[in-house]
Automatic annotation (TrEMBL):
Binds 1 Mn(2+) or Fe(2+) ion per subunit. It comes from the Bacteria. Zn(2+) binds at C89, C92, C130, C133. Belongs to the Fur family. GO terms for biological process: negative regulation of DNA-templated transcription; regulation of secondary metabolite biosynthetic process. Keywords: DNA-binding, Iron, Metal-binding, Repressor, Transcription, Transcription regulation, Zinc. Gene3D superfamilies: 3.30.1490.190, Winged helix-like DNA-binding domain superfamily/Winged helix DNA-binding domain. GO terms for molecular function: DNA-binding transcription factor activity; transcription cis-regulatory region binding; zinc ion binding. Fe cation binds at H83, H122. The lineage of its organism: Bacteria, Candidatus Gottesmaniibacteriota. This is Transcriptional repressor. Its cofactor is Mn(2+); Fe(2+); Zn(2+). SUPFAM superfamilies: Winged helix' DNA-binding domain.
């Protein structure tokens, strides 16, 4: 999604487009992998409270999803991106999006039915070493 479309969607939902909000949305839009609040703080001049409040607003409105790669660092990306999974290099910490041909929706339905569990979403991450670190 391009930046103007993302901002228009926020406006349509009743959110004001403040300079900080616009910068955060722009940074997330340009990012090729999920980014943490610390990364946002490094790139945007704003106080910590403002950044976390903006992330919270965008999460609560459903524009962001929160991802944890098991290192207790919360990362964020737009919720409206095509469903994908991540390859995480344990050496250099690079993150690569990967699409899988396998559709897990049937498996989710089976789990939901068998376990009486409502699946909201799922995450699947692969941990290993990237081509740069393997050589």
């Amino acid at each position: 999604m391009d930046l103007n479309t993302a901002l228009q969607e926020l406006r349509s939902s009743g959110l004001r487009i403040t300079p900080i909000r616009k910068q955060i949305v722009s940074l997330l839009n340009e990012s090729v992998s999920p980014i943490s609040a610390i990364d946002i703080l490094k790139n945007i001049k704003a106080n910590k409270t403002t950044i976390y409040r903006e992330i919270s607003v965008l999460l609560s409105k459903g524009y962001l999803i929160e991802i944890d790669f098991g290192d207790r660092i919360k990362r964020y990306e737009f919720a409206n991106r095509d469903h994908h999974h991540h390859l995480i290099c344990i050496m250099c910490k690079s993150v690569t999006d990967v699409d899988l041909a396998d559709d897990f929706s049937e498996k989710e339905k089976l789990i939901a039915s068998r376990e009486k569990f409502k699946v909201m979403r799922h995450n699947l991450e692969f941990f290993g070493t990237c081509r740069n670190c393997t050589n």
